[in-house]
Amino acid sequence: MLTALSIRDVVLIERLDLSFGAHLTVLTGETGAGKSILLDSLGLTLGARAESGLVRVGAEQASAAAVFSLARTHPAWAILSEQGMEAEDEIVLRRVLTRDGRSRAFINDSPVSLALLRRVGALLVEVQGQHDQMGLADPAGHVLLLDAFAVPAALRDTVAQRHRTWREAARALDAAREAIAAALRDQDWLRHAGGELSALAPQPGEEDSLAAERQRLQADERRAAAIASALSELTPRDRRSSGPAAALRAASRALQRLGTDAEAGPALQALDQAEAALAEAESLLARLSHTAEGDPRLLERAEERLFALRAAARKHSTTVAALPELLAAFQARLAALETGEAEIDALDAAARSARAAYVQACAELSKCRADAAQRLDRAVARELPPLKLERARFVSEITTLDESAWGPLGADSVRFLIATNPGQEPGPLGKVASGGELSRLLLALKVVLAGSSPVPTLVFDEVDSGVGGATAAAVGERLARVAERVQVLLVTHSPQVAARGAAHLRVAKSSGRNRAETRVEMLDGSARREEIARMLAGETVTEAARAAADSLLGAA
Hints:
The protein is elongated. The chain has helices spanning 35-45, 75-82, 114-122, 142-150, 153-185, 187-200, 206-234, 244-256, 265-291, 296-315, 323-383, 429-432, 435-449, 469-482, 495-498, 525-537, 543-555; strands at 2-10, 13-19, 24-28, 61-68, 91-98, 103-107, 110-112, 125-129, 393-400, 412-419, 427-428, 457-461, 487-491, 503-512, 515-523. The protein has 556 residues and is of the alpha/beta class. A hairpin with a 2-residue loop joins strand 6 (103-107) and strand 7.
C-alpha cells in the first residue's frame, strides 16, 4: 500500500510530507483548496503526463515521491527483478519536473524510463475519477477481472500452457514447410552443387594435411635437385669436359714424371688424398641421389587437390574446413525432399492435436466464465439500488474471438456493459453512464471485485458527486467495505462519506508572504467533528450541525 507521499514545489505546495495508513483515508476541503494538486502529484509518481505549469512559481523544478510497502509476492517486484534492480524494503517512485517541461523518473533512486514507471505504477495504484476514468472502465482488463473473480487459476494456467504448446507446434510445422519449399525452389542447384562437392569429397582437416604434404614434397624436390647438381659437378655427363677427378689425375701424372723429387712428394701425396676424398664424396652423393629422388607427380597431385578444395570454398563463400559441413547440409536438404512429406504429416498431426487440446480447454474456460459472469452480474445488481442506480442494468458480455485473436487468455472477449434506463441497450461503461453514474457504478464493481486485482491502493476522486442523504451514506458504507481489503484514498465533499474514514486529512489554502499556499493536516477528535459539521452547514457551523456530525461519526 501507499505509505507516504512527498511533494516539493508543485503549484501551491512548497513542501509537504504525508503519511498514509491502511483502510479508508478521506481528503476534504473547500473547492480550490488544492485537493487536485495532491492527486496530480501522486499521478506524477505513477507516470502521468507532466506539464511545466505544475512547477511552483519561483522554483526551478518540482518533484513528487510515493513510497509503497508491498508483499514480496506482489508482481511489481518481479518487474524490478527483470530490470536487474535489487529488492529493497520498499518501492519508491519519484518524478522530477523542470520548468522547461522535461522530466526524469526514478524507482528506488535508480533512473528509469517513463514507460517502466507507468508499468510499475499501474500495479500499485488505480485511480477512479469522475471525469477521467481508468482501471475498471478499460475493457482490456475486464477478462482478467472476471477471471480473478470466479475462474479457477488452474483452468487459466491450463489454457495458457496449451496455447504455448499449440503455437510451438504450429511454428515447427511452418518452419518445416518453409524448409521444404526452399529446398524445392533450390532443388536443381542443390543437386548440381551437392554433386560437385560429393565428387570432390572434402574431408575434415584435409587442407592442413595437404598443405603440409605439399611443403614436404617441395622440400624433397629441392633436396634432390641440390644433390643432383652437386653430383653433376663431380661427374659431368659431357665426356668432353673434364671434371675435378680428371683434373686431379692429370696433375698427379704430371708430378709423377719428376720421379723421386723430394720437394714434389708432399704435393703428390696431397693430390692422391684429394683424389681419394673426391671419390668418397662422389660415392656418398651417388648413394644420396638414390634416396632423394623427388616425385613431381605426387607434388602435382597434392597441389591440384589443394587448389580444387580452395576453389570450391571460394565458390561457396566459405572456408575449406567448412566444406564437409556444407556438403552435409546440401545432402540433408535433398534428403528432406524425400522424407519431407512424412515429417510434415507428423508435425501437422501434432499441431492439430495441440490445437484440439487448446480448443477443449478454451471451451471449459468459456463455460466457467459464463457462470462467473452470471454471478458477477447478480452481485453487482445487488449493489446498484442503494447507490441510486436502481434502474441500471449491468451486463458482463462474453463473445468468441476470431481464431487469429486467440491467445493465452483463451478465445473469449469480455466487456462490462451498462444500461442506465429501462429499455436501453447496454453499452460500454464510459459511453453510456454519466460522470456521477459511472463513478458509482465503478464503486459497485469495486465492492464486488475488491481483492481480485493485485493493485493494493485505490484512489476515488469525488465518487459521491451529485448524491446526498441515504445514497451518500450507501457510498460511504461501500467504500468502507472495499477498504477492508485494499487501501482506499478518497477525495470527497460528502459528510456522510467523510465520516466513514479511518483517517481524515483536511486540505486548506492559506495566504502568506504575498502568495497562496496549500497545506494538509490530519484531523482527530474535535477537529474532525468541526470539519464534518462545516461540510454539513457551510460557512456558519451551528450546534445542530455539530450534533449531526456527532451522529454521523457515531454511526460510522
